[in-house]
Input
Amino acid sequence: MAKIVISGGVPLNGEVWISGAKNAVLPILAATLLADEPMSIGNVPHLHDVTTTMELLGQMGVQLVLDERMKIHVDSRQARHWVAPYDLVKTMRASILVLGPLVAKYGSADVSLPGGCAIGSRPVDQHIRGLQALGAKVSVENGYIRARADRLKGAHIVMDMVTVTGTENILMAATLARGTTVIENAAQEPEVVDLARCLLAMGAQISGIGTSTLVIDGVERLHGAHYEVQPDRIETGTFLVAGAITSGRVLAKRTRSDNMQAVLQKLEECGAEINTGADFIEIDMKGRRPRAVNIDTAPYPAFPTDMQAQFAALNCVAEGVGVITENVFENRFMHIQELQRLGADIRVDGARAIIHGVTEMTGAPIMATDLRASACLVLAGLVAKGDTSVDRVYHIDRGYECIEEKLSGLGARIRRLAN
Ligand code: UD1
Output
């Protein structure tokens, strides 16, 4: 199994380009199922989850071509097999995103119950309840969600909790429903906004985009469009933390700062100087050790759970004590015991991790357990003294494009070993 080995202790210094957002491209690819005409999607990140999604759509009969400029040309007119099989869904929970489009467009979907990151139970009851409200008949049989419908009908749906993919599934389904759908307590994450903008480009009628109430007037059909995926705010944040944790300077290019305020505020609190422009963010620690920060995760616009593990790594070597409170997912502290193996001083108390910064961590073999946890371990390796080898890096390849090349470009001593 591939490993990443990092020889820590180098302050990062340089520029890095940011890829398209994983959590935006996955729903956008699912949305191509709704179109009556070919689509093209640009700024697609080269990620394992994108390959899995292409495989998933491909086995349904969708034709997909990835060109050399990382643009995907999609033609879903031949889609015939409206099934998302367990083998694909178990590796990527976001496969659930085909459920809404399939039932809305073809009236039939059989989607395996998802697997994905092992971060809590992560049920899909809100997806199912929303589709039922739109008139679909949904049952769970033999580990599959089986949804059937004639044309869906608009409905007023109040989500029990803020769910990103749940909102996206219902939003996509509602675009082709007869009449008006209102989704209250909708997720406001920038990736939901990106999906909604892509749907608008396809001819959907949606208002309230970026707010907690989405209003969708169903249309008869959606046409083809070209859409450029927004930059990845979580990848951006991860590279900024890489700058902070190494007391270095990192300029993230081809990104945006307007949807990253909570993360940028925390970086400033830890002592970073931040400079932003239309398409870049620069962080400069001026050689200083970071100060510990308290983090409370919550839905957007609050601090994202997908940046929690990276800030846990930062607190490990920061000055003072930082408390990380994870409010979105249970069981999202699996990186903590790996950080402890590097010498971090952390006590977990339920959903809180209390981290006393140490002046030095030391390299050790550690293991990635989920996508964002693996990024946190790489960050810790950048500052730990000696060699840190991170095992099970397939988790990182799901969500970070060329991470070792990008970090090497910033001066990190990092390499991948095949076995
Ligand atoms: C998405 C992101 C993931 C991010 C998460 C929270 C994608 C592909 N993934 O995951 O990176 O960490 O948002 O920002 O976009 N819940 C239920 N019932 C449901 C749905 C969710 O109880 O039907 C709960 C979950 O267990 C969790 C919370 O709601 O506690 C939020 O989860 P949700 O927003 O749905 O996460 P995902 O959409 O799976």
In short: Residues 23, 26, 93-94, 120, 122-127, 161, 163-166, 191, 304-306, 328-329 surround uridine-diphosphate-N-acetylglucosamine (CB under 6 Å).
